[in-house]
Design goal:
Layout: H1 3-12, E1 16-17, E2 28-30, E3 33-34, E4 37-38, H2 43-48, E5 53-56, E6 67-69, H3 73-88, E7 92-96, H4 101-112, E8 118-120, H5 130-136, E9 144-148, H6 156-164, E10 168-171, H7 179-182, H8 185-201, E11 205-209, H9 213-218, E12 223-228, E13 235-242, E14 246-252, E15 255-260, H10 269-281, H11 286-295, E16 304-307, E17 312-315, H12 322-334, E18 340-345, H13 354-367, E19 373-376, H14 378-383, E20 390-392, H15 395-405, E21 411-415
Helix pairs in contact: 1-3, 3-5, 4-10, 4-11, 6-8, 10-11, 12-13
Enzyme class: ligase
EC number: 6.3.2.10
Main location: cytoplasm
Length: 429
């Protein structure tokens, strides 16, 4: 069965699932494979539990006409998504970057919803499986698609662009992350630049922070909409405060417009301004933009301010890399409140740069006299011996210690790589 025939089938059964534990009635199951699983083995059970068809790529599992055999199930999923994207024919915005892409995607979606029926990536479902599933969730009612794209190896953004075929693109920033896969900071830049390159070849437009020299150096011959604080910026704004929450002043044709967000961290300024720019560019009233940005509440331990019975938590524990960790520490150090406390976890996937980047952060903490700091993870525990910080190898050990510490009336920054699972300690704070 070719992709056109499979797409016709999808039009009649327009829900695709890849997790056999999350079957939806009258859906199509795609049997993906990984290092530790083989979806083909569960194809029959998905049909028994409500799926109408199952796409498999091992012939022995295609036992009747409810099974569709293909050479490669993942490739079929990606081709199916591209075909659906072409049939829909709607504008697609692709968002990538080292830091802030999920927050920016959420902000942009809130703004564009004021005018369009949008469909956006759920969570950070932004890889070679997540992007196709995001596209396949769009339907004939969708007027604007917002697709987050993540990568940890060269070529991945190019591949995702060839699936989603975006008309517009935004790179939030480039920094040191996933160096184990990219090899170097230049590898990061070259991979993110694949979005600019795709849009340059396909007459697309990009939205660019005109104060970011790295991004300016990556531009090709595409159409560009700038945002920032210079004369060439389509949208201009001024940072006012981020203590405890971010407030910006938008320079608007109707006068100064103050946007009081629910986000923590001055580093979110450019993410908010990106959303403002997209909204203005696509004709959304500035009062509606202000309302969308002020009512958006962050979740999933990203840029959250959380008040417990005992303390105030600055939660940014979903992920961490040298760029985002440095920004978070410097932002927290600059805040004027007393009783500051930090709980920081290892930064993972940094390859040969790991030791140096962790040592740089230890020195940054020391220079800012942030002595009330707890470090969690094997890397920090190994490298911090010459400093006076309390360290634990696991979050379980941290939790035991917090039971004895009984922290109260503290302002606590929590940040680390997802693999450290610092969120497990929140209930003790």
């Amino acid at each position: 069965m070719n992709i056109s025939e499979i797409y016709t089938l999808f039009q009649n059964f327009p829900i695709v699932v890849t997790d056999s534990r999350k079957v939806v009635k009258d859906s199509i199951f795609v049997a993906l494979k990984g290092d530790n699983f083989n979806g083909n083995k569960f194809a029959l059970s998905t049909l028994e539990n409500g799926c109408s068809y199952a796409i498999v790529d091992e012939k022995e599992y295609a036992i009747d006409d409810r099974f569709i055999w293909v050479e490669d199930a993942l490739d079929c999923l990606q081709q199916l998504a591209r075909e659906h994207r072409r049939v829909l024919g709607i504008p697609i915005l692709a968002i990538t970057g080292t830091n802030g892409k999920t927050t920016t995607k959420e902000l942009v979606n809130e703004v564009l919803k004021k005018k369009f029926k949008t469909s956006a990536t759920q969570g950070n479902f932004n890889n070679h499986i997540g992007v196709p599933l995001t596209l396949l969730e769009m339907n004939s009612d969708t007027e604007f698609g917002i697709v987050e794209m993540g990568a940890n190896h060269p070529g991945e953004i190019k591949m995702l662009c060839e699936i989603a075929e975006p008309n517009y693109g935004l790179i939030t920033n480039v920094g040191k992350a996933h160096l184990e896969g990219f090899g170097s900071f230049e590898g990061v830049k070259n991979t993110k630049k694949e979005l600019y390159d795709y849009l340059s070849k396909h007459d697309g437009e990009v939205f660019v922070n005109c104060e970011n020299d790295h991004l300016l150096g990556m531009l090709n011959k595409q159409k560009i909409v700038f945002y920032g604080n210079s004369d060439k910026a389509y949208s201009k704004a001024r940072f006012l405060q981020a203590e405890p929450k971010l407030i910006i002043e938008l320079r608007s044709p109707i006068g100064k417009l103050y946007i009081k967000t629910q986000l923590i961290g001055a580093y979110n300024f450019e993410n908010v301004l990106a959303a403002v720019t997209l909204g203005r560019y696509f004709g959304i009233d500035e009062i509606d933009i202000k309302d969308a940005l002020e009512t958006y509440t962050p979740s999933n331990n990203r840029s959250q301010l959380k008040k417990t019975d005992n303390n105030v938590l600055f939660l940014d524990a979903y992920n961490a890399n040298p760029t985002s960790m440095k920004a978070a520490i410097e932002n927290f150090a600059a805040m004027k409140m007393k009783n500051k406390f930090l709980i920081l976890g290892d930064m993972l996937e940094l390859g040969n740069e790991s030791e140096r980047e962790h040592l740089d952060l230890l020195e940054l903490l020391n220079q800012n006299e942030l002595s009330d700091t707890i470090l969690v993870g094997d890397i920090f525990s190994t490298l911090s011996s010459k400093y006076k910080f309390k360290t634990f190898k696991t979050v379980g050990d941290l939790i035991i210690y917090l039971d004895t510490l009984n922290l109260k009336d503290k302002y606590i920054l929590i940040k680390g790589s997802r693999g450290i699972k610092l969120e497990k300690a929140i209930e003790k704070l």
